[in-house]
Amino acid sequence: MSDVFTPARRPTTSEETIKSRYQENEFGDGYEQNIRLGLNDKYSELSLTWETMNPSEGAALLTFFRAHMEASFEWRYMPFQPVRKWRVVGDPSSSAEKGLFKVQVTLREVFI
Q1: 2 to each of 13, 23, 44, 59, 62, how far by Cα in Å?
Q2: SS3 55
Q3: Where is the composition biased (Basic and acidic residues) (predicted)?
């Protein structure tokens, strides 16, 4: 059973990108063939930002994301969507200004 992500509040901004895993094969006569890689070749990536957070909220998010850079977790990205599994891609980043934190992270949908 994987962890469940339950942030104190929803991200301030979010962007979902649908991606596909496939291999392109080009032949000398101009013919091209694309091969889907795996059963779940289409997946989502989310770019998320939480702004104007107090230090404890920002620290809690960073701790969770750093703990899940290789492990998956469950989260319902939008209230009307089913729960899906995600993994952190790259390093989450944070900045602080006037005592308020901003946290940015990219998540990739996984199928485990």
Answers
A1: 25, 31, 19, 21, 18
A2: helix
A3: 12-23
Distance separating alpha carbons of residues 104 and 102, to the nearest angstrom: 7
- The total number of structural domains in the chain stands at 1
**Residue 38: left if φ>0, alpha if ψ -120 to 50, beta else—which one?**
left
0.85 cut: is pTM over it? no
Tokens coding 89: 């891609």
**Can you give the residue range of the structural domain that contains 40?**
3-109
* pLDDT, tens digit (0-9, with 9 covering 90-100), for 74-84: 999 888 888 99
Residue 99, Cβ density class (10 Å: 0-12 exposed, 13-18 middle, ≥19 buried): exposed
Most confident of 13-17, 20-24, 38-42, 102-106: 102-106
pLDDT tens by residue, 41-65: 777 899 999 998 888 898 999 999 9
Entry field: residues in the chain: 112
Nearest 5°: CA angle at 20, between 17 and 86?
60
